[in-house]
Amino acid sequence: MDKDCIFCKIINGEIPSTKVYEDDEFLAFMDINPAVRGHTLVIPKYHCRNILDTPENVGKNFYNVISKVSNAVKKAFNAEGIYVFQQNENAAGQEVFHSHVHIIPRYKGDEFGKYSPPRLKVEIPEIAKDGEKIRQSF
Ligand code: AMP
Ligand code: ZN
What's the fold here for domain 6-111? Predict the structure, then answer.
């Protein structure tokens, strides 16, 4: 719990939100400034900054909850797909520093398709070197 954190305040009911799912460890609520209708956020109740500092025990059930909420959003909005993303640190676009995952209903040919960046042309040996760098970084 961080007394200055807006999402901790939502968890505590100090500021209003439209909650859609809650259990002992997680909360899901509607994004107040939605990219599309149905844009939902899932957060752990434990205050951590983002995926980079989430303790193992806190992250353990996160995927299951994201899956559960994604299915409900998909059904509620007749979505054809669900886009899930998390922005970690300022450089990645994070603005609220309480770990959260965005759940976005997607439809064929929708606006979101425009945001996919063009892919680089990188040869397999170079990709293998990138993989080696990551393996050495655990
Ligand atoms: P990010 O840029 O990944 O940190 O996302 C933060 C998200 O939180 C944005 O999509 C905001 O619209 C959303 N947000 C900020 N304040 C609130 C709030 N009080 N209730 C619901 N969503 C919020
Ligand atoms: Zn918080």
Answer: HIT family, subunit A (3.30.428)
Average pLDDT over residues 53-68: 96
Phi, psi at 105, each rounded to 5°: -65, 135
Single out the catalytic residue among 39, 98, 100, 102. 100
Our answer to whether residue 100 is catalytic in this structure is yes
For 37-44, what is the mean pLDDT?
98
Q: Which of 112, 117, 30, 121 is nearest to 76 (CA)?
A: 30
Which of 137, 129, 79 is closest to 104 using CA atoms?
79
Determine whether the shortest distance from the Cβ of 50 to ligand 1 is under 6 A.
Answer: no
Quote the ligand 2 centre to 26 CA distance (angstroms). Answer: 12
Confidence band of 113 (pLDDT split at 50, 70, 90): confident
The whole-model pTM stands at 0.96
DSSP-H helix ranges across the chain: 6-11, 56-59, 62-76, 124-135
